[in-house]
């Protein structure tokens, strides 16, 4: 079972760069790895160069305003704003927002701006001005190709991080020979007693203690701490805010995933995925397939399965250094993170692969920015060192 979970996870001087990138890229797709060399590679050379981190979250009024905007948008993953660990910058018209956090010299925005695209250029300009006013570099993490024209206009540079797997639920169907192996896996899981159910938000409080027990068992088995920023955390209020898919065995919850939903039944996003270790080999196949079938029946159009780090990087002779380093890590970095396994697991569900980018100001490899992002996700060095 542990090998399957690794699939999910929601090298002298010229070798140190790929190693550092491997540790950081691994944080894109799971709660995990130890970037021991990354801090030495990109840390400031003097104590006077270190910025004080600002971790203030949104006020209740700001959160209420952000959730009202979120309810009108199609990107379900933007629901991570509910974690409350990011600050919120609103457009002057208050129709859009950017969620962001700060670490070191970086001011890091998560995902595309949330709101109408015609507002993006102004909001981007406002974000850049805010970063400049605080003496920090502007960074955009996991943005889509739709954001890139605005980034180019602002003089920012994109670096491909990998590809996001999005299932088109309108055509998802397990019939046919191509799905035979997956059908066998979930049929075996159900014959062995695993049962799926989707809990509505108002049913989640009844089982929150049981979900917490599963979460703690999962974290302990991975020697992991809770992450954040671009990854969900087990905060009871956050988990209770939406539906939760569960797998039971003999009446006991052994796996769960919370689901973020976009307004208008457009997009859904699988966030936290946790389970009791060594339960059943086909458990995650069953969980994913039944979630897809359930969301399709509810009228949702797409299901976001999250990132496959370093997937889809061009490796031709004209590719930039960033791509070549990324491809080297993808090919030879399995000791750091199961890059191939993550991509292979998500490929089972025939997704559309959508590129995602890191966008920063300045020239040269953006390792300092990537380090700051990794620190935000890991909650500091202690969280990173604990996988």
What are the salient characteristics of this protein?
21% strand, disordered N terminus, 11-stranded mixed β-sheet, 37% helix, 387 residues, single chain
Write up this protein.
With 387 residues, the protein is an alpha+beta fold. It folds into two domains: 12-163 and 355-385, 3-Layer(aba) Sandwich (Aminopeptidase), CATH 3.40.630; 167-304, Aminopeptidase (3-Layer(aba) Sandwich). The protein has helices spanning 2-8, 13-26, 36-42, 60-70, 120-133, 148-153, 180-191, 208-221, 236-239, 283-297, 321-332, 339-347, 367-378, 381-385; strands at 87-90, 97-103, 106-110, 137-143, 157-168, 194-199, 244-249, 252-261, 267-275, 302-309, 352-360. Strands 1-2-3-4-11-5-10-9-8-7-6 form an eleven-stranded mixed β-sheet, with helices on both faces. The chain is globular, with a radius of gyration of 20 Å. Residues 1-21, 29-50 and 383-387 have low confidence and may be disordered.
């Amino acid at each position: 079972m542990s090998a399957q979970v690794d699939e999910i996870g929601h090298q002298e001087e010229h070798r140190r760069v790929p190693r550092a990138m491997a540790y950081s890229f691994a944080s894109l797709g799971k709660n995990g790895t130890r970037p021991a060399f990354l801090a030495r590679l990109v840390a400031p050379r003097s104590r006077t160069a270190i910025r004080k981190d600002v971790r203030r979250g949104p006020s209740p009024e700001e959160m209420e305003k952000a959730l009202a905007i979120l309810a009108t948008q199609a990107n379900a993953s933007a629901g991570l704003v509910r974690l409350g660990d990011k600050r919120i910058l609103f457009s002057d018209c208050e129709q859009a927002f950017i969620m962001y956090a700060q670490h070191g010299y970086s001011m890091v925005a998560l995902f595309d701006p949330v709101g109408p695209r015609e507002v993006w250029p102004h909001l981007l300009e406002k974000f850049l001005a805010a970063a400049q006013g605080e003496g920090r570099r502007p960074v955009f993490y996991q943005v889509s190709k739709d954001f890139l024209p605005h980034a180019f206009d602002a003089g920012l540079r994109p670096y491909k991080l990998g590809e996001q797997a999005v299932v088109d639920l309108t055509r998802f169907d397990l019939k046919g020979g191509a799905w035979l192996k997956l059908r066998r896996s979930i049929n075996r899981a159900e014959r062995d007693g695993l049962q799926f159910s989707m809990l509505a938000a108002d049913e989640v409080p009844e089982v929150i203690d049981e979900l917490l027990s599963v979460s703690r068992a999962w974290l302990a088995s991975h020697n992991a701490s809770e992450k954040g920023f671009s990854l969900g955390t087990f905060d009871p209020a956050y988990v209770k805010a939406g539906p939760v898919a569960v797998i039971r065995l003999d009446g006991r919850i052994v796996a769960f995933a919370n689901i973020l939903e976009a307004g208008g039944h457009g997009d859904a996003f699988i966030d936290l995925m946790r389970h009791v270790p060594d339960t059943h080999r086909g458990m995650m196949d069953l969980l994913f397939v039944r979630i897809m079938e359930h969301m399709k029946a509810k009228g949702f159009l797409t299901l976001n399965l999250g990132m496959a780090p370093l997937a889809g990087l061009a490796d031709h002779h004209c590719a930039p250094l960033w791509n070549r380093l990324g491809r080297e890590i993808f090919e030879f970095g399995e000791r750091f993170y199961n890059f191939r396994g993550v991509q292979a697991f998500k490929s089972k569900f025939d997704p559309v692969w959508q590129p995602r980018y890191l966008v920063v100001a300045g020239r040269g490899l953006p390792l300092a920015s990537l380090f700051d992002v990794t620190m935000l996700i890991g909650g500091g060095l202690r969280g990173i060192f604990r996988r």
